[in-house]
Amino acid sequence: MNEILLIVLAYLIGSIPTSVWVSRYFFDIDIRDYGSGNAGATNTYRVLGPKWGTFVMVVDMLKGVLAVKLALLLPAYADSEINLQNLQTGLGLAAVIGHIFPIWADFRGGKGVATLFGLVLGISPWTALSCVGIFIVVLYLTRFVSLSSILASIAFPVFILVIFNVDNPLYRIFAIAVALMVLLTHQKNIGRLLKGSESKVPILKNRDRRRQRRREESVDRRN
Question: What is the pTM of this model?
Answer without folding.
Answer: 0.82
